[in-house]
Design a protein that fits this description.
Layout (H helix, E strand, L loop, with lengths): L8 H10 L6 H10 L46
Amino acid sequence: MLSNGTYGSPRTTREFQDQGLKAGRRRVTRLMRENGLRARQPRRFRRTTDSLHAFPVAPNLLDQDFSAERPNEKWGADIS
Protein backbone atom coordinates (compact mmCIF):
# COMPACT_ATOMS: atom_id res chain seq x y z
CA MET A 1 0.00 0.00 0.00
CA LEU A 2 1.58 3.25 -1.12
CA SER A 3 -0.80 5.42 0.88
CA ASN A 4 1.71 7.66 2.65
CA GLY A 5 0.36 6.45 5.99
CA THR A 6 -3.16 7.78 5.48
CA TYR A 7 -5.11 4.50 5.50
CA GLY A 8 -7.27 3.84 8.53
CA SER A 9 -9.01 0.55 9.24
CA PRO A 10 -11.90 1.00 6.75
CA ARG A 11 -9.63 1.66 3.77
CA THR A 12 -7.13 -0.99 4.88
CA THR A 13 -9.95 -3.53 5.17
CA ARG A 14 -11.17 -2.66 1.68
CA GLU A 15 -7.64 -2.97 0.31
CA PHE A 16 -7.27 -6.43 1.86
CA GLN A 17 -10.64 -7.54 0.47
CA ASP A 18 -9.69 -6.27 -3.00
CA GLN A 19 -6.58 -8.45 -2.82
CA GLY A 20 -8.69 -11.49 -1.95
CA LEU A 21 -7.87 -11.65 1.77
CA LYS A 22 -10.62 -12.36 4.28
CA ALA A 23 -10.59 -9.60 6.88
CA GLY A 24 -13.28 -7.71 8.75
CA ARG A 25 -12.99 -4.08 9.78
CA ARG A 26 -13.01 -4.83 13.50
CA ARG A 27 -10.23 -7.38 13.13
CA VAL A 28 -8.16 -4.95 11.09
CA THR A 29 -8.82 -2.25 13.71
CA ARG A 30 -7.69 -4.55 16.50
CA LEU A 31 -4.55 -5.66 14.64
CA MET A 32 -3.65 -2.09 13.76
CA ARG A 33 -4.09 -1.03 17.40
CA GLU A 34 -2.00 -3.97 18.68
CA ASN A 35 0.81 -3.08 16.27
CA GLY A 36 0.70 0.65 16.97
CA LEU A 37 -0.51 1.59 13.50
CA ARG A 38 -2.62 4.71 13.18
CA ALA A 39 -3.90 6.68 10.21
CA ARG A 40 -2.29 10.06 9.74
CA GLN A 41 -4.72 12.94 9.97
CA PRO A 42 -4.45 15.63 7.27
CA ARG A 43 -3.14 18.94 8.51
CA ARG A 44 -5.70 21.66 9.05
CA PHE A 45 -5.58 24.50 6.52
CA ARG A 46 -4.34 27.69 8.12
CA ARG A 47 -4.37 30.96 6.20
CA THR A 48 -1.09 32.83 6.67
CA THR A 49 -1.67 35.87 4.45
CA ASP A 50 -3.99 38.73 5.35
CA SER A 51 -4.73 40.54 2.09
CA LEU A 52 -7.30 42.81 3.74
CA HIS A 53 -4.83 44.51 6.09
CA ALA A 54 -4.97 48.24 6.82
CA PHE A 55 -1.26 48.87 6.31
CA PRO A 56 0.03 50.97 3.40
CA VAL A 57 1.22 49.13 0.30
CA ALA A 58 4.49 50.22 -1.30
CA PRO A 59 4.05 51.93 -4.66
CA ASN A 60 5.01 50.07 -7.85
CA LEU A 61 7.65 52.45 -9.17
CA LEU A 62 8.81 50.26 -12.08
CA ASP A 63 5.32 49.33 -13.29
CA GLN A 64 6.76 46.13 -14.87
CA ASP A 65 9.23 48.17 -16.99
CA PHE A 66 12.56 46.43 -16.29
CA SER A 67 14.50 47.90 -19.21
CA ALA A 68 17.42 50.14 -18.18
CA GLU A 69 19.66 52.43 -20.20
CA ARG A 70 22.75 51.66 -18.08
CA PRO A 71 23.83 49.18 -15.36
CA ASN A 72 22.84 49.81 -11.74
CA GLU A 73 19.85 51.89 -12.75
CA LYS A 74 17.04 49.56 -11.65
CA TRP A 75 17.16 46.91 -8.97
CA GLY A 76 14.69 44.18 -8.09
CA ALA A 77 14.35 41.89 -5.10
CA ASP A 78 12.23 38.94 -3.97
CA ILE A 79 11.31 38.56 -0.33
CA SER A 80 9.75 35.14 -0.66
